[in-house]
C-alpha cells in the first residue's frame, strides 16, 4: 500500500481498475483464509483487489449470526495506490477494491445477499468453481459451469435488485469441453457481468495434481473478445509468473491464492515472506481479532519455506496466541499495536 486514506484518491469499480490500469494484482477468495486481517495485510504489498472467502448466500441472507461470522470489514483494509493508466500513462492515486464472493444456486437468495452486503463492498462475485462434492450436490460452485442460464438469471436478478450498474462478476473453472466455457462466458457477458476470473483447471483437476492450463485461460480471454476484463488464476507464485501469465494469456490481471498464503508480499517482488509482513500480520490479527487456529495456520504458511524442519514441527505443536507470539519474538520479530484496526460488521 502506498499511502493512507487521508489523501484524495479515486474510488472506482473493479472492472474500471482492471481495464484502465497496468499491473493490477488480485488476491483470491479463500474459504477460512481471506478474512479481514489477511486482506488488509496483502493490501500493504501491492494487492489492489481482494476477495472475501466464499459465503453461502442463503445462510447470509437469512441469519444475522451468519452475517456477523462471515463478514467484517474496515475503512483501512483496501489501501490506496499510485497506479499508472494503461492509456496516457498518467499516474493516479486509486483506492483498492474489495469484492464479496457468494455461492448460490438461486437468484433470490443471491439477490438478497447482494442487497445486504453491497453498501460495504465494491462488487460481488458468484462462485462458479468450487469443486467439492458437497457443493456440487447443493447445485452451487462448479455445478454452475454447465448451467449458463442459471448464471444469467442470478446475475440479472442481483443487478435488478440493487442497480443495473452494480459490479457482479463470476469466477469460473475451465471445462474440458471448451465450447461449454465459451457458452458460459458469452451468456455471462450478455447478462452484464463486470469481469470474469478464470481458474485454468477443470473441476476434476486438483491444484496439487495438475498444472494450470494457460492455453485454456487464453481461450477464455479470447472468448470474452475484450467485452469485459478477464483475470488469470492458478499457480502464480512469483512476480515473474504474473508478467509471463499475462503475456501468454492476454489476461488483464492475475489472481493468486496459495502463493499469497505462502508469501503475502509476492506481488511486491519478495521471494519469501519478509519478517515485517509477519509482524504486520500479528498486529492486524490481534487488532481486528482472528480465531487462533486461523492465525496459527497463516503464520505456519508464511514461515514454511524459511524454518528448519525441527522449528516447523515445534511451531505446529503450539496451541495458543501466547505460544506463537513467544516463538516469533524468539526469532527476533517485533511489532507495535499502532495503526487503526476498527472493525465494521453488518
Ligand atoms: C485454502 C483455499 C480456499 C479456497 N477457497 C475458495 C473460495 O472461497 N472461493 C473460490 O472461488 N475459490 C477458492 N479457492 C480456490 C482459489 O481461489 C484458486 O482458484 C485456486 O487455489 C487456484 O489458485 P492458486 O494456484 O493461486 O492457489 C480456495 C483455494 C484455497 C487454497
Automatic annotation (TrEMBL):
- The residues annotated as the active site are 130
Q: Which PROSITE patterns match?
A: UPF0034 (PS01136)
Gene Ontology molecular-function annotations: flavin adenine dinucleotide binding; mRNA dihydrouridine synthase activity; tRNA-dihydrouridine20a synthase activity; tRNA-dihydrouridine20b synthase activity
Record's CDD domains? Answer: DUS_like_FMN
| Record-level GO BP terms | mRNA processing
Residues involved in FMN binding: 29-31, 101, 199, 257-258
User: What are its cofactors?
Assistant: FMN
Acetylation: present as a keyword of the record? Answer: no
Pfam families linked to this entry: Dus (PF01207)
Q: Does the keyword NADP apply?
A: yes
**Catalytic activity field:** a 5,6-dihydrouridine in mRNA + NAD(+) = a uridine in mRNA + NADH + H(+); 5,6-dihydrouridine(20b) in tRNA + NAD(+) = uridine(20b) in tRNA + NADH + H(+); 5,6-dihydrouridine(20a) in tRNA + NADP(+) = uridine(20a) in tRNA + NADPH + H(+); 5,6-dihydrouridine(20b) in tRNA + NADP(+) = uridine(20b) in tRNA + NADPH + H(+)
Q: What is its EC number?
A: 1.3.1.-
Record-annotated DUS-like FMN-binding domain positions: 27-304
UniProt KW keywords: Flavoprotein, FMN, mRNA processing, NAD, NADP, Nucleotide-binding, Oxidoreductase, tRNA processing
Question: Which family does this protein fall into?
Answer: Belongs to the Dus family. Dus4 subfamily. Belongs to the dus family.
Describe its function. Catalyzes the synthesis of dihydrouridine, a modified base found in the D-loop of most tRNAs.
What protein is this chain from? tRNA-dihydrouridine synthase
